[in-house]
Every structure is written in C-alpha cells, then in structure tokens.
Write a structure and sequence with these properties.
CATH class of chain B: Mainly Alpha
CATH superfamily of the largest domain in chain A: Periplasmic binding protein-like II
Number of helices of chain A: 18
Structural class of chain B: mainly alpha
Oligomer: heterotrimer
CATH architecture of the largest domain in chain A: 3-Layer(aba) Sandwich
Largest sheet of chain A: 4 strands, mixed
Radius of gyration of chain B: 24 Å
Helix content of chain B: 55-70%
Largest sheet of chain B: 2 strands, antiparallel
Structural class of chain A: alpha/beta
Distance between the termini of chain B: 21 Å
Number of helices of chain B: 15
Distance between the termini of chain A: 73 Å
Chains: A alpha/beta, B mainly alpha, C mainly alpha
Shape of chain A: globular
Strand order of the largest sheet of chain B: 1-2
Radius of gyration of chain A: 25 Å
Number of strands of chain B: 2
Number of strands of chain A: 17
Strand order of the largest sheet of chain A: 3-11-4-16
Largest interface: B-C, 110 and 108 residues
Number of domains of chain A: 2
Shape of chain B: globular
CATH topology of chain B: MetI-like fold
CATH topology of the largest domain in chain A: D-Maltodextrin-Binding Protein, domain 2
CATH architecture of chain B: Orthogonal Bundle
Helix content of chain A: 25-40%
Chain lengths: ~550, ~325, ~290
C-alpha cells in the first residue's frame, strides 16, 4: 500500500458524498376513529357469539414463539381449522422461545414486524411505545366485542388501568383471566421422600430440611438442580421465592416494587426481603443442596440430571411434569414418582401473587394502514377472546381432538393425549395438532382452564386457590421522555442486579457487602429510576383525584 | 483480532516509509483522454464502487441517527434532530463507563498476549531443522483459524463444562470443579486463551514470510563478527522482522475497540457481564435488543472514532519514532 | 546456516522440540476431545471421564441429528450461501483488484482510498442493521452475501498479484486488438489460477463460518445456516426436543448433541483442509512477497 497517501484517505472520506437517499416508508397514521378505507372484508355486524368470517380469504402475519417441546409444524390442524372457520390464513414468523424477546425487538426495530406480535407480557411493550412502532390498542377496543364483554363481565377495568401510559392509552392486548391461577412450582421425587420418610415440604424452610436429608442419603449429588435459567437466570425459582418473601425475583423481577405500607415504590434490590431471599438460596448453594449450575445451564442439562436420577427437585409446570419428567423417569428409574407441589410458603405467608392479565399481543403500527385492519381486529377478538376461539386454541376441534359429554364437560377423543389427561392416547394435542401451542388464547374462564386440568392439577389449583391474592401494584404511567430515559436505566440496572444476585447466591460475593451493593444499585441509576417511577405514580394519583 | 485483516502489511514492511513505487506517467492525461482510453477499466469499477457506497459509506452516514430521533420503519437516517441529547445520555450512563473499562482491559490483555506469541512461535519454528516436523507443526497450528467462531465457542463450552476435560483434570488433582463460564473472574482468561488458541498459529505466517526474506549475508557477517545464535537472533532476525511487527501492532491497536464481538456474544451471560460486557455487546443490547437505536448509534460512533484516533496516532508515533508506518 | 552446533544450541533444540510438540498437542487436544465426546455414552460424559478416547461407544445422537430434517435444511442453506456468496465476491473482487492494479490509471489513488478507508473506519452495527432492514433484505440470502461481498484484505492481495504480472503480456494482447474485458478474461485470469483458488478458499471459509448476520437478519428457521443450528444448541435456544428425542435417548442427546453437531459442522472443513491449506499460505505469501 505504498501509494496509500493521506490524500487517498481523504478521497475515501470524500466518497461519503456518494450518499443515496434514505428509504423512507412510514406515512402518518390516520386519526384513530377514522376507519373508512380500513374496513374491507370485515363484518358489519359482529358481536359476542358471532363467528368471525372474512369477506374474502385473508392472510395476516404473526410472530410465533416456537417451543422446543412442541416444535412448529405447518401442517398442524390448528392452522387449517382457523382458515376453515374464518377465512384467515395466519402466516407465522417462527422464533425459538429462548430468543423470542431478542428477536421480537430485532424484528420490530427493523420495521419489518408481522402485524400481530403475540406472547407479549404486560410491561414488555414499553420499549416499543417510545419508538412508535406499535399501536395504542385501547383506541380500537370498540372493534372487539368479546374483549369488552370479558373485561366488563370479570371486572377487569382496574387491571387494565395498570397498563395505561401517560397518554391514557395502553399498547398491549393482554390475555384475560377470570381468576388468578398459578401454574409454575417445583417438582419433587415423592418416591425419594417416602424412602427417606419425609413429608412433602410446604414451606421453603421445610424444603431446606428435605434437601438436607436427601443430600445425607446421596452425598455425591446435588438434590436440586434447576432449569429455566435462559435467558433469565433462576427465572422460575427466584420468581417463586420472590413472591413468598414479599419481593420480586427471576421472571417476576422489576426494579421497582410497590410497598403498600409506605404508599410508594421502592427499589426491589434494596429491600430487606430481597436480601433474605438471597440469603436463603445462598445457604442452599453453600450446603451443596442446590446445584450452582442451576443458574446457567440449559434446560436440557437440568432435565437430564433430573430424569437420570442425579437430582430430585426441579422447577416445573403442569405440562413439563407430565410431558417430560414422567415419561423419561419411567424409562430410566422404575418406580420413580414425581409430583408438582404447591408453591412453598415463605415469610409473606399463604399468599399468591399474580395478575389476572396474562401475556397477550401487540399490533404493529403499519397494520393500521391496511385496508383489512378492521377485519384483523375482529379476527383477533374472535380467536383470542371469544369462547369459541378459546376452545379452539385450547381443546381443538370437536370430534377430532375432543368431545363434549351430555353434562357439558370436555373429553379428549380416545387417541388424543394432553399432559397425561388421556394416557392411552397416542397422539399429542400439542405436538401433533398444534393446539395449546402457547401463542394463542391465553387466559379464559376458570371453568375452561379447569377443564384442561388433571385431577392432581386440580388439587394443586385448589391448594393455591385457598391462598390470599395480593393486590396488584398501582400504575405509574410514563410520558414519552420518561419512557426513553427509563429504558436506559431499567435494562442495565436489571442486568446488574441479576449479575450481583447470582454472585451473592453462589457465594462469589459475601452478603456482608450487602450495603455496598445497595449503594451501587442506587448510583447506577437506581435512585433516578425510582424517582421517575414515584413521580409518575404521584402524577397518576393526582389525576385520578 | 483476526489475522485476515492484518496480512496485507508486508508490502509496507518491505518498503517502509511508503516510497513511491508507482511509475508516475511523464505527463498527466486529462480526464477526457483517460476516460476515452480506459473507459472499459472504469466500467469494471462501477459495481464494486456501488458496493462500497451502499454497504460501507451509507452506514457511516447512517451514524447521523446518533443526533436524530429514529423511528422503526421510518427513514434509516432518522426523523428529526435532537442535537447532542444521546451523546449526553451515554456520557452520563454509568454502565457505559463500566463496559468501556472492560473493553480497554480485555483489549489490552489480548494485545499483550496474542501479539507477541506468534512472533515467538515463528522464531521457534524457524529454528526447527526438520522440514517435515516444521510442516506438521504449521499445518496443525493453522487449523483453528479456519473454524467458525460458533464452533470455537462450542468447544470452549464443552471443554470447560463441569463434566469437561479441564474439570476432570482438576478433579484428578483433588480440586473442586470450577464453573469457568459463570465466574466473572475467569472470563478474561477464558477469552484470551481461546483467542490465543485460535490465532497464534495463523499469526506466524507473516513472520515466517518475513524471516525467509532476511538477507542470509547478514547472518554470515554476524557469525564472522563472532555472534552466537542468540546474538544473531537479537541483532539480525528481530530487526529483520521489525517492520512486520510494527505494522501488525499498529493494525492491532486500530481494532482494539471492536474486539471479539461475536465470540463474546456466544460466551458471555448475565453472570459474567461485569467483566465480559464490552462496548460492542452493550450497544448491541441497547440498540437491537432494547430498540434504543439512536442511543446505541451514538455509542457506536464513539467507538469507531476512538478506533480511528488510535490507529492514526499509533501510525504517527511509529513514523516519528521508528520510521515505519502504514501510510 | 551451517556451522558447528554448540552444546547450548543442542539443548535449545531439544527444548524447542518439546515446546512445539506441546503446541501441537494443545491445539489438537480440544478437537480430539470433542470427537471423543461425540461418540461416548452419557454416563461417562456426565461423570467427566471422556478425554481422548470415546467411552461407552454410542452413536444414537449421530443417528438422531442425521435424521433431523432441519439439520439438513440448514446444511443445504450453508452450502447455498457459501457458493453464491463466494461467486459474487470473486467477481467483484477480481474486477476491482484488476482496476486498482493499473498503475497509470487516472483516479486510481481515489479508488484505492475508497476501499482502504473502510478498513479503518466503519459505520458500525446499528446503521448497518438499519440499512439492511431498510433495503428490505431481511430474510433473503442477500442480507448475508452482499454486505460482505468485498473483503479489503483479499482485494489488496489480489491487487498485489496483478501488479506483479508481467505487463508485456497485456501489452501484446492490446496490440492484438483484445479489449480490456478480453485481456482480463483470456490473458490475465488463466495466469491467476493460484490467486483465484486462494481467494475462493478465503471467501468460502468466511461464508461457511459466519453466523451473526444470519442471527440478525434471518427470522425463518428454514433459512438458517448450520452455524445458527449449532449456535441455537449451545445457547439453549433449541434443545433435544426439537430434534425429536424422548425418554432415555434425550439424556444421551443432552450429554453430547453439541459435540456431535460441532463435529458434523466441522467435517467439511477438516476434510478439505489438508489439501488446501498450502493455498491459504501461498495466498498470504502472495500478498506478502509481491510488493
């Protein structure tokens, strides 16, 4: 490159002038109420009880969260049945579940997002509001009779208020539950308990005792090795513990937690309860009761340990218990039995946290400009919120996957199985038909949910149902500027707390440094973030009067 | 850094100072004459120039979104000016300074370890008399260079897993297993070792080429002066490959900031962010994952500018003090 | 360099041999270990007892991965991207390098500067990402092959090679009335087989190995390259469930599916490596020796 003179470098810079025009799409969004020109192929009179049917065959694009336990299949009955009933073909973009949050951002950021973005938990929509990529769906609920009907019937208006931003609108259509119902807990090997003469643990302290006894009998093993740590380390375990201790952790972690006594939000990572929770987990790790890999290993690794008999306690939900643990244990350890125990209780007592709002969907802003926008909203209303849509998404097709007996109860057809409800069935409702695929129709009436529970799951639900539901925290709607600023503090702060949490838990940082840690959290934007949240809350309270 | 970027230096190494080797035409032709004579050549350059304009220079201009508000689906150059808002934001962002420090530390460690090792290995190889043995060592040590970073990351994970080779060796000497990939304290060692494993062999190529081009008469003269092997290495060999060393060093310094993004992406996790998170991974998370494109672009622009400043100053210092430079 | 080796030098030779042997061992050990794991039974793997030789020989995981249609789809994609990408890159790089090698060409300094400046300053991840998205290239092969069509390093190697060719041949061709295109095609390229072979290899390896572009720009699994298949395994994004394991097979797969996939992905490179590595070396040498 001897002739590479400084002059040629300048020429290189000069080439910047070759800039081409940007590729602008966009175009302003029309006034929310003006739907003329967006009502093609919709139904003029669409109401509760009606089946949505498009005027001509339509295709709507949707993001799809692909679960490795029942991987996406384009030939599923679910897709063809939806088309048959409504004339709508869903065109999914498939994303593996552990990358779902990242990919969702990537795709929305690229401006090429599908119209429908399901599996979005309330709160996750916030970064996309600031960037203007998603629709304020609250402007369009008039197109959704079933949604409005359920909100009114189950008295969910207050819950929805928590989703409203400072402009008074909300940007995510949540899944709606009639009641709070927990699904996730711990799976315990009951045959091991019996052999050691132990009772099923009902509190975290009892779990500690049980694990100690297991360790004594199997000194070479970690009695508990956990899963669901990607992308959130200790996602389930810390979430359960957080609730039991009156704070938040894992999947449920938020930087700000509502303190009802003080009447304001406090930094979650600065709460004494949070410290106590870490103390507890740290003890488990120190005593070699909990596998330190629990917080980073893949689900496959954790499952392999549990199903090969190396560990005896693992996180679970109703599905995994029946679909994964039991079949695998049946082949490896004859006589092994495993149950999902009611969530162990902690200092907060017999409570359960939870919102009646489940994950739901966002709508991409561009979809608003489509001539079929109204048809799409009606379709969404039908599939996610109508009784018929919910039954389709969950149970499938009458006569093919289920039958209704004279008493009105749902039964699977003889060859269809789901979470072991019909062990003789050779076909799997999820894997082979694509129902209960985790993207459509979360929530629903308690009766519908219960209908899909096995007897043992009903026992679990009954035990959990008896606990007191904690009040949902009040809303703190943010303005646009606040949102942009808050995402800059929120995410790094979460990362930092996650990281330090694990250090404390794994003993890499002694709990004697707790105060220093709280100071770090505050200086890393914690104080500013909290001020912003509390300011927004006060403003909201003032408005409400 | 990957050696594919570094290897173009030998031309300079061989003509330090960039003396004009191109024969300058006696009389400059006018543009009109040139076009008439060489229009076919120019047509060959059109498509590549479009490539550079679109995929290299447009993104540079795209950095204006660091000063403009960007809306997904809108113009790639942003929608309206916000001035230095985003610059101010990241300068006040404590996390940014953490990752900046991490970048410097990891970059320096990599430089200190991965820059001299190929030189040493090349010198050792050069002393190997058996040609077959030499070829075997070369072939084997080049191999990791051809493996995808995904494969290397996979190998690192398997190798350092609780049931992996390293821990079984630790077990054999009675040490408790170490979870290397979960401890921030280990990340830098793991990263630098894997980088060394992958690059050291391939890095020797340029030095070996430079070694063969050293004038044998110089060794002869040194021997006559009574220099032993070590003195010959010190006084003849090292000065002989010095231009290569310097050009490689300058380029290494230039890519300091953009270190190992893809490998870190694969190897880090929230547990090791405190040492593993670098500027490029942070801006990826802030930009692509959290949709703060303008903010991330501001950080990216800062990173690119530092890289440019580093390489220009390294080049300048080198030209002043050593008389060797890239341009 | 003849001369009577001194005692110190002989000691050095012994040490040197030992050190270089260790280098070879350290380079190969992780690779052999992965192969050993890929053929081992889960019990031995989980107990950390697999080092250089497979223990509890087991090829269930191989069978399953080889029966996974996704794996083959992804493998096919990788081949497609590599072939198309390499072809485009070769054409563009050759054209531009040929132009740059013409020392008397007016504006050459500018043309060189355009390319070389990009080595030292780049737009960065975010603008690139927005650009590719804005051009509507997401979920197409173009998002992977076009942004990397010209590597400036390869360009300079080729330029050096062309500059080193005797000018007489081209002058003779010009006298014979061949156009520039004709000269390039009929005279220059046939004499450039070595450098073209090298460039082919350089580009092919980089396309074969790339993953991040695919991770960022491809949303549909049927477009993924095999590197992404492997990445999703090691990052826990996909699991043994997606490959269709159940029961005890799942435990076996969980233990070594990553090793198996690493081996299967690396095989093509390992298979051609012994035959082509000298071309790689000669390629760098071309850049190095020709001024």
């Amino acid at each position: 490159m001897s002739e590479l003179s400084r002059r040629s470098m300048l020429f290189g810079v000069g080439a910047v002038a070759l800039g081409l025009a940007g590729c602008s799409t966009g175009g302003g969004t029309k006034k929310a109420s003006d739907l003329s020109g967006n009502s093609a192929d919709s139904m003029t009179a669409y109401a509760v009880g009606d089946r949505f049917k498009a005027g001509k065959p339509l295709t709507f694009t949707t993001l799809y969260d692909d679960n490795t336990n029942y991987p996406y299949n384009k030939d599923w009955l679910f897709w063809s049945e939806v088309s048959k009933r409504t004339g709508v073909t869903l065109n999914p973009t498939i994303v593996p579940y552990s990358d779902y949050e990242t990919k969702r951002s990537v795709i929305i950021g690229a401006g090429s997002a599908p119209s429908i973005i399901p599996k979005t938990y309330p709160g996750q929509e916030v970064p996309f509001i600031a960037s203007g990529a998603i629709l304020p769906v609250s402007d369009y609920t008039d197109l959704m009779p079933n949604f409005k009907d359920k909100v009114a019937k189950w008295n969910l208006e207050g819950d929805l208020d928590a989703l409203r931003q400072d402009d008074g609108k909300y940007y995510v259509l949540p899944g709606l539950h009639q009641d709070v119902w927990p699904d996730y807990s711990l799976a315990v090997r009951t045959d091991v308990l019996q052999k050691l003469g132990l009772q099923t643990p009902t509190t975290w302290d009892e779990l500690h005792t049980v694990l100690k006894a297991m360790k004594a009998a199997h000194p070479d093993s970690y009695p508990m090795s956990d899963r669901w740590s990607i992308p959130t380390p200790g996602g389930n375990l810390l979430n359960l513990l957080g609730q039991s201790y009156g704070t938040a952790g894992g999947w449920g972690y938020n930087n700000a937690t509502w303190d009802p006594n003080a009447g304001q939000f406090v930094l979650t990572a600065g709460m004494d309860q949070y410290k106590q929770m870490l103390q507890y987990v740290n003890t488990l790790v120190q005593e070699k009761l909990l596998d330190p890999e629990s917080f980073t290993q893949t689900d496959d690794q954790a499952k392999a340990k549990f199903t090969s008999g190396k560990s005896f306690v693992i996180s679970t939900n109703a599905q995994e218990l029946v679909n994964t643990y039991r079949p695998a244990l049946a082949t490896t350890i004859p006589g092994a039995t495993v149950v999902k125990i009611p969530v162990p209780m902690g200092p907060a007592g017999a409570t359960k946290m939870g919102s009646r709002l489940e994950n739901g969907l966002m709508i991409t802003k561009n979809a608003r400009n489509s001539p079929d926008f109204v048809a799409m909203m009606q379709f969404i209303d039908w599939l996610w919120y109508s009784d018929e849509g919910e039954v389709l998404a969950k149970w499938g097709v009458e006569g093919v996957t289920y039958t209704v007996d004279p008493a009105g109860d749902y039964r699977f057809t003889p060859d269809v199985n789901y979470v072991g409800l019909n062990p003789k069935g050779t076909k799997n409702l999820q894997k082979d038909f694509g129902f209960m695929n985790g993207n459509f129709a979360y929530g629903g009436a308690t009766k519908l949910l219960d209908s899909m529970f096995s007897a043992e799951e009903l026992v679990f639900q009954k035990a959990m149902g008896a606990r007191k539901t904690l009040a949902v925290p009040p809303p703190y709607p943010l303005t646009e500027d606040e949102r942009q600023q808050s995402t800059l503090w929120d995410t790094p702060l979460k990362d930092y707390v996650t990281q330090q949490t694990l250090k404390f838990v794994l003993g890499d940082r002694p709990l004697s440094q707790w105060d220093a840690f709280v100071g770090e959290v505050k200086s890393k934007g914690g104080t500013s973030y909290l001020n912003l949240v509390n300011k927004a809350y006060q403003r909201y309270k003032g408005k409400k009067g | 850094m990957s050696s594919t970027k570094t290897a173009d230096l030998l031309p300079d190494a061989r003509s330090p100072g960039g003396g004009g080797t191109s024969p300058v035409p006696a009389r400059r032709r006018s543009w009109r004459q040139s076009l008439r004579r060489d229009w076919q050549l120019y047509t060959l350059a059109v498509v590549p120039l479009v490539f550079f304009a679109v995929f290299r220079y447009l993104p540079m201009i795209g950095n204006v979104i660091a000063f403009r508000q960007f809306e997904p689906g809108g113009s790639v150059f942003g929608d309206h000016w916000v001035g230095l808002e985003y610059i101010r934001m990241f300068l006040n962002d404590p996390t940014f300074w953490d990752v900046f420090t991490n970048t410097l530390v990891l970059g320096l460690l990599t430089l200190v370890v991965c820059f001299p090792m190929p030189i040493i290995l090349a010198l050792l190889l050069n002393e190997l008399r058996n040609r077959y043995a030499k070829r075997i060592v070369q072939s084997v040590s080049y191999l990791p260079h051809f493996l995808s970073v995904v494969i290397v990351a996979g190998i690192v994970m398997e190798f350092l897993a609780a049931d992996g080779s390293v821990n079984s060796a630790l077990h054999a000497v009675g040490h408790a297993p170490i979870l290397f990939l979960q401890q921030p304290g280990w990340f830098r060692s793991v990263y630098v070792s894997s980088e060394l494993w992958q690059t050291v062999g391939w890095g020797t190529i340029l030095y070996l080429a430079a070694l063969t081009s050293i004038d044998q008469d110089l060794y002869e003269a040194a021997r006559i002066d009574g220099a032993n092997r070590w003195q010959q290495t010190w006084h003849v060999t090292l000065p002989g490959i010095r231009p290569t060393m310097i050009t490689l060093l300058i380029l290494n310094i230039g890519t300091f900031m953009s270190i190992g993004f893809e490998k870190i992406m694969l190897l880090y996790n929230p547990l090791t962010y405190s040492t593993a998170d670098v500027v490029s991974t942070y801006l990826y998370r802030m930009g692509v994952v959290s949709n703060n494109f303008s903010y991330a672009a501001a950080i990216g622009l800062f990173e690119s500018l530092i890289g440019l400043v580093l390489i220009v100053s390294a080049n300048k210092i080198s030209r002043r003090t050593l008389g060797t430079s890239l341009w | 360099m003849v001369g009577r080796p001194t005692r110190g030098y002989r000691v050095f030779q012994v040490c040197n041999t030992i050190i270089l042997t260790l280098v070879v061992v350290a380079t190969l050990y992780p690779l052999v270990n992965i192969v050993a794991r890929s053929f081992s039974g889960e019990g031995y793997i989980n107990a950390g007892q697999v080092n250089l030789i497979p223990r509890g020989f087991n090829i269930k995981t191989y069978k399953a991965v080889l029966h996974d249609s996704t794996f083959w789809t992804d493998y096919g994609n990788t081949v497609l991207y590599t072939v198309v990408g390499t072809a485009i890159s070769l054409v563009l790089t050759t054209c531009y390098a040929y132009v740059l090698s013409k020392r008397n060409l007016r504006g050459r300094t500018f043309l060189v500067g355009v390319a070389v400046f990009t080595m030292f300053f780049s737009g960065g991840l975010i603008p690139n990402y927005l650009l590719i998205s804005g051009l509507g290239m997401r979920n197409t092969i173009w998002s992977l092959v076009l942004p990397n069509a010209i590597s400036v390093f390869n360009l300079l190697v080729m330029k050096s090679f062309f500059e080193g060719m005797p000018t007489e041949l081209e002058e003779a061709a010009a006298i014979d009335g061949l156009s520039t295109y004709g000269t390039l095609l009929r005279i220059v390229l046939p004499l450039s087989k070595a450098v073209i072979a090298t460039m082919t290899l350089f580009y092919a390896v980089s396309f074969w190995n790339s993953w991040f572009g695919a991770f960022l720009y491809l949303d549909r699994p049927n477009l993924f390259p095999v590197t992404l298949y492997l990445r999703n395994l090691i990052a826990g994004a996909s699991g043994t469930g997606s490959v269709g394991f159940t029961g005890s097979d799942a435990a076996q797969a969980a233990a070594n599916i990553q090793s198996v996939t690493i081996v299967l992905t690396t095989i093509p490179i390992l298979a051609v490596y012994p035959f082509v590595q000298r071309y790689f070396v000669s390629g760098v040498m071309i850049g190095a020796v020709k001024g």
